[in-house]
């Protein structure tokens, strides 16, 4: 009897635990992009949608790749429209090479890109025969290396919190444990290295301010440490002093060898690396496109060298520099070239062409070496992108795995004779557009809809026309009837590309047309599980110089933001800094608070919750001002952004500052839900429509609606979420309802709808891993037409700017070609009639669809 009761009790406990686990799974929250989650998601999507044997798909992949390679033009035209023909001999290395040094006659290249659970690599190149002679692997690498005064080479270990020591045979002889995320390193004497911790962990195990430390390489002990600020990056020992770039605060800090502070210098934006000729320190400011010249004797900034491309104030992304004789060389990532300056006259002489996205320039006696982070391949087809693989996290066709870099080996004697020709080649490499041939159509309202992670083939590969591969289609017409109808009724854009490989870069491009070199590197580190925080669009170190809403505000153009987290934190910080400065207590408190949000991967969740409870109280600027004057709301928002009531006090004391924040609130749709895959996109449609209808009724429809419609991201086959077919069908139905609503409204005759994915990382494509889907609709958009002109997210952004009369944000969108070929001067006012929704809609979504008016 006792045994029976024991067995029965055991069953009850097991059932209870099972039900509890199920409930927890149903309530599970999925981050936008978790480390390595994207590759797993790709595999799950393929298994869910196709259920085809791996061996069959492998054979198909091989065949498709060969066909794709055969169709590649000999002219290297990148997916972003730039043309490259790098000088010298090209050597392919690992993923996203970001640093190199010349050691023992060899070029030691640090490949710091996406390696999943595999170790990151160091490529050893013999420059005499242009061959990789050895490849080393370490758990984690940061782009910093130095030759010690003891003759060994030291490598920064980044996330592993290590410094690796190699001998002249490139064998590991020792590794040192340190107390933070290892960044820049430099020798002080034979037994000491200065080591930067880019971030350290606080008591809550969240990333906090960085430090500078002294490592004794003989004892292996850290002798001293000092906290320096947010995101220190590089360090240089010069003139018996330590200089370090404080990337997150736009400063150059000076310390003595005992780590006593000497001076703080204000430099340009996002100072990352530097070089020196012994008498001058050249600081590379990556987002302000200039070089700060520092006199190490007086520790003062004595000049600035402008490296802007053409007349754009930012966007060329200088990443490194080299002083060689009377020449200063500066790598400029976004123009695929090395700028050559007369060092003494500080005059630009021309360019040396490189591969895609140069990150480092260095030299030996007779050769110059240039690292290109994204290599020399014009296309990276990934027909096997979402396949299962034998090894966890090792899908070779995941988009970040395709970023194989290269090293250009250029004889110095060839630079001067070829400089004029090479300069013209670099300058002619951009997809130049002249606004004099602008778009003359009566568009007054643009609806800019950003979705998540799909490739062209994955959705439209089965379309009867255009360059698609139906074998790679996971979400075809039966799941995405609106996507297919929009692509058929209006234009099929089968040659459209994402500019960023992953979401954190994608949202930076869709909102600002730019991603800094630091963001490019940090994104790869995060996605490979080598950075335990999500500062993207939250912490100021990751912000772009200018955003779309800045250009809109500059021209007095009204706009409304629906759900985009890259608006909330960058715009709030900008208002604080504009009013009180980056060194103000408010700015410092904001910085501290956002690092807390980054540790939680917040992405605007808390702000969205606060805003939603006050929807309807900020429909006009006057109402928004009254809302921020309410003590309860002001106190909650202040605590959210600065951790206390100091921001609320500033609003109370400063009427102009209060008005600026009221405008900030007015431009954000308070009812729109943040990232949450369990919140239906059809409900997001209803939320948007409620706000849109108010604007129509008031006769004040914003000129730009930026709408984040994220659920086509899907959760793979993870429990607690709708399955991929259900989420994509839901997203499709919501998109169709948005287009239908606009096309049946009173403003349809002067409206333009632009739909784009933030990136294409979660699917296969036979043309390129960054080819994605884009849809357009308007009375002034052509009907039933295939357009194969090459466009990308920057083209779409430039189209918005040209139509609304905005200035470009930076070089990238300024040189992008607008989507001119989509337009017609003969409007067709017929409204969009959506097809019946997909049968894959869940019952709850079917009800929402029927409720939508």
Count all strands and give the number. 39
Instruction: Name the CATH superfamily classification of the largest domain.
Output: Alkaline Phosphatase, subunit A
Question: Which class of secondary structure composition applies to the elements?
Answer: alpha+beta
Radius of gyration: 27 Å
Q: How many domain units?
A: 3
Q: Summarize the biggest pleated sheet.
A: 5 strands, mixed
Annotation keywords:
Methylamine Dehydrogenase, Chain H, alpha+beta, 21 helices, disordered N terminus, 30% helix, Alkaline Phosphatase, subunit A, globular, 853 residues
Report on this structure.
With 853 residues, this protein is α+β, with helices and mostly antiparallel strands. It folds into 3 domains: 32-71 and 444-537 and 544-563 and 672-853, Alkaline Phosphatase, subunit A; 94-344, 7 Propeller (Methylamine Dehydrogenase, Chain H); 564-670, no CATH class. 30% of the residues lie in helices and 25% in strands. It contains 21 helices and 39 strands. Strands 34-35-31-36-37 form a 5-stranded mixed β-sheet, with helices on both faces. It has a 4-stranded antiparallel β-sheet with strand order 1-30-29-28, with no helix packed on it. The chain has a 4-stranded antiparallel β-sheet with strand order 2-3-4-5, with no helix packed on it. A hairpin with a 4-residue loop joins strand 17 (241-246) and strand 18 (251-255). Helix 10 (565-580) packs antiparallel against helix 11. The chain is globular and about 75 Å long.
